[in-house]
Amino acid sequence: MKNLGVVSIITPTFNSSQFICETIESIINQTYPYWELLITDDCSNDKTIDIIQKYILQDSRIKLFKLDKNSGAGICRNNSIMMATGRFIAFCDSDDCWMPNKLEKQLSFMI
User: Fold this and answer.
1) What is the pTM for the complete model shown?
2) Could you give phi then psi for residue 22, rounded to 5 degrees?
3) Is the CA virtual torsion 7, 11, 17, 20 positive or negative?
4) What average pLDDT score do residues 78-102 get?
5) Are 26 and 98 in contact (CB under 8 A)?
6) Is pLDDT at 87 greater than 90 in this prediction?
7) Residue 71 DSSP class
8) pLDDT number for residue 1
């Protein structure tokens, strides 16, 4: 797969423990491998952080940021965007799943 540039995937979380595994797995399984997943958590009080941290240990492309006070999904997205290093930005909510070739198809179309 040709490297067309890193895609910064922006994911806000808040008490997403029942969905976040499937979301992260769908990103890990992308056919386009040049991405970073930037997750900003909005003060979750369930197991969301613990789950994300397990994935961080397995894949260095995943990064977690935590807000100091509950501020909403928009602030979470903006925080992750500020940390993004990619050529492209994509948004994936914490309860969404992507088809394996989503990034590959989108990049092919945009390029």
Assistant:
1) 0.96
2) -65, -40
3) negative
4) 98
5) yes
6) yes
7) -
8) 79
